[in-house]
Every structure is written in structure tokens, then in C-alpha cells.
Amino acid sequence: MKYAFIAAHEKEFSVERMCRVLGVRRSGYYAWRKRPPSTQEQANAELLTKIREGFEKNWGLYGSRRIRHYLLRHGGCYSRYLVAWLMKIAHLTLRRSAK
Fold first, then answer.
1. CB atoms within 10 A of CB 71
2. Which long-range contacts link 28-34 to residues 24+ away (Cβ below 8 Å)?
3. Does the first or last residue of the chain, that is N or C, have fewer Cβ atoms within 10 Å of its Cβ?
4. 76: closest CA among 48, 42, 39?
């Protein structure tokens, strides 16, 4: 997570200073950038695509439980907690329906 923070703020602050403040080595950061995404990161990205599809298809009214059931109906078997975590990271928040 520290490396992702550094990558996100690389244009605002120097990499050297951020590494010093966060207590990581610059060489570790640059090695992390060159490394290809792990299989777990790839699987999470693929699942997040499916979650976004279900979320948008249901007008942003489905939370993690309903999205999980949507995925189950479409052949995926995932933990509700994994779905909730990915939705939180992607900032997929519920839109309240008008009553």
C-alpha cells in the first residue's frame, strides 16, 4: 500500500522524500514498479470488472450482498467480504432510491 501511495503522488512530491517519510527504500519502490501484477491482483481486477458491471446494471442500488448474489447467478462464487472490500476500494457506494 505504501508503494501504491507513492505511485499515486509521484507528481506532487519527490519519490526520495516520500520513501524517507514512509520508511521504505527507493530501490524497493522501483523494483515494485517493474514487477508484473500478481495472479491475485489480476483475479481481483477481473472480479472488480464483474462487480462494476453488476453495480451499473442495477443502477447503483445493490450493496455487497446483492452483488454477491448477482455474481452467483452468473456463475461466480465469491465471498461477500471480498466483494465488499473491492467495492470499498473502487468507491462503489449505494445510491439511495427515491421513495
1. 19
2. 28/3, 29/3, 32/3, 33/3, 33/7
3. C
4. 48
